[in-house]
Amino acid sequence: MKASLQLKMGQQLTMTPQLQQAIRLLQLSSLELQQEIQQALESNPLLELDEEQSDGDLEQSDDPSSNDINTNQDSASVETSDALTQDSMPDDLPMDTTWDEVYTVSSNSSSGVSREDDMPFQGETSEGLYEHLEWQKNLTPFSDNDLAIATAIIDAIDERGYLTQSCEDILEAMGDPDTELDEVEAVLKRIQHFDPIGVAARNLSECLLIQLAQYAADTPHIENAKLLIKDYLDLIAGRDFRQLMRKTKLKEDELREAISLIQTLNPRPGLAIARSKDEYVIPDVSVSKKKGRWVVELNPDYMPKINVNQHYASMARTTNQADGQFIRGHLQEAKWFIKSLESRNETLLKVANCIVKFQQGFFEYGEEAMKPMVLNDIAEAVEMHESTISRVTTQKYMHTPRGIFELKYFFSSHVGTDDGGECSSTAIRAFIKKLVAAENQKKPLSDSKMAQLLAEQGIKVARRTIAKYREAMLIPPSNQRKSL
Asked: Where is this region: Disordered (predicted)?
């Protein structure tokens, strides 16, 4: 092939670094934005925190303490001439130190070791079920052989607290010919009484019976509860109360009390010790009603106010060329960063105001008044692209009188009504929750019945849609909600 030169014309969209930074800041959550601001403050010397308000608070807090110190010194001081002319010695003499100071110094320096070394750590722990059982095992006086068995048993316990291997498999895995099956079962009995009670059970019935054994022998209906757990656990799960009363010869009141006692037990004891990570949410905006109007405000606490260090900025003209270029480059970056933050706040406030305007019924009356709304509705109202609205509403939270919600929560699909209107899926979930809460527990509402009740209110919803929403809210079906 012969080499040649060709001239082409075309259009290409190029994102400037400033635009890329603005888009990246727009999709950050409040916690991530705080980290981004802190990183920018550390990397750019021309950015600084606006600490005028904090400095003023510190000065106000310093003044009263200094006045108190001067007052105490004046009251404790005694003139030398007055002291010499006194005939009697007072009971309380002035001291250079207080008892608190003497106690603090002596306790810290008596042994030459810091008290921090002796104090246990009281902060957050990330202990799981395995670590909790290992800690109890080490405190239990086991022999060397029993300790090895206990270790093997704890290794075979899942996160729910159940033993996943049989005693025969544990004995075979140990590979010790001197260990017998009776020893494994004896150690298992001891571990089953570790905290939480019922751990290391081989099935649900054994787990519940172990917990029930901790109750006093004279506990009302305890024998009936044991009978139900041993022989009729499947019927309890199926809520077949007529069959239970026929087979157990129990009256309705006796059966109800026995089942209530069983419901106080924990079928998954291991989850009570399971490691969980708390997630903290800082609302980006807050909504409150002032003078009859819903007002949206940015949360000033989640984002520190930053500005350009004017002292360093003025040095760009007086320093040499290399230093001046360095300062000018960081000055421009600082201005871009501050402008991107301001643009983020303006966009977030504009979108939040539009959401509140669309969903005023929710703020006034609750979930049942939620209107159907999609991203395109807000995008057209604020004259932005849907992708921008998606970035603004992701991981952004709104503090309202009804709680804290993610901005995505206010968007939902719609279902048609008889009068030609629309009803949001969030409102339908609220209706389902309300119907379940008010139903007769002896005859709970089926999905078809709830669809019929909604149709009477003009909302056309299929039975399978009711089932989908009910399962999403973790509401069991009607046969499992039935009770005596």
From this structure: 51-93
